[in-house]
Write a structure and sequence with these properties.
4 strands; 4-stranded antiparallel beta sheet
């Protein structure tokens, strides 16, 4: 099994449009990732948080979401829903997705077989990388960013 990640994507004040779904489906179809669990949540204006049924979302016109019906392993629980609810704003909808990075599985297996162990992992926000590259480029050109 490859490394497992999760993400929480907020749709401020609205429901998902489904525009990004073809890209996620493409990652699955190409074997890059495997969706282990996916949950949609809504935070009411009073701050209460509840999981949404996939059928409710598809009936509301988000038919592209139907591809993920049944993608529920039970790994994401009420604690995860509550935590995601703390991260999103009132009146917003969010998707929580837990997925396996299948592309990394052979590498991870080789590391385990060789006795290696992962001691740190992280993610650098794209905005930080762009800012650092802009700064390095400006420094090389002798100008300030």
């Amino acid at each position: 099994m490859g490394p497992i990640d999760y993400l929480v994507v907020e749709y401020p004040g609205k429901s998902p449009t489904g525009e990004a779904l073809p890209y996620l489906v493409d990652l699955v179809d190409r074997g890059m990732i495997r969706i282990l669990d996916i949950v949609f949540v809504r935070k009411a204006t009073d701050g209460s948080v509840a999981a949404l049924e996939m059928a409710d979302l598809t009936q509301a016109g988000n038919t592209n979401l139907a591809v993920f019906e049944g993608a529920a392993s039970g790994l994401l629980g009420q604690d995860d829903i509550e935590e995601a609810g703390q991260a999103i704003g009132p009146g917003s909808t969010a998707v929580i997705a837990m997925y396996e990075n299948r592309w990394a599985a052979p590498f991870a297996q080789a590391l385990r077989r060789s006795g290696a162990r992962l001691v740190a992992v992280g993610r650098i926000p794209v905005q930080d990388v762009i800012a650092a590259l802009d700064s390095a480029e400006a420094a090389a050109a002798g100008t300030a960013p």
